[in-house]
Amino acid sequence: MSLETRLHQRLADRRVNRVNLRREFFYATPAEILTILEDMGLTNNLLDYAEEPEAQEWRSSQQLAHGT
User: Fold this and answer.
1) What span, in angstroms and rounded, lies between the C-alpha atoms of 17 and 25?
2) What angle do CA 62, 64, 68 make, to 5 degrees?
3) pLDDT tens for residues 18-37?
């Protein structure tokens, strides 16, 4: 079973889009994902980990939405 499949199973109750299951977005923080990877014994495979992801487009969208 692939890592992606395992993560999807663990995050199934946090799925953003419950109508179209092909849209693979989940409500989870980077820290929560790190905990899941630790539970799976896979943190040795991490190349890079950032608690605060770059997410420039998301941050710009948030600024526009809040008028800042």
Assistant:
1) 7
2) 90
3) 777 777 889 998 899 899 99
Strand, helix or coil for residue 4: helix
pTM of the model: 0.62
Segment holding 59, helix H or strand E:
helix 56-66
Secondary structure of 19-37 in the HEC alphabet?
CCCCCCCECCCHHHHHHHH
Cβ atoms of 17 and 25 within 8 Å: the answer is yes
Alpha-carbon distance 61 to 1, whole Å?
36
Asked if 53 and 29 touch (Cβ cutoff 8 Å), the reply is no
CB 15 within 8 A of CB 21: yes
Please list the ranges in the chain whose pLDDT falls under 70: 68
Residue in this structure with the two tokens 């820290």, named with its chain if needed? 31
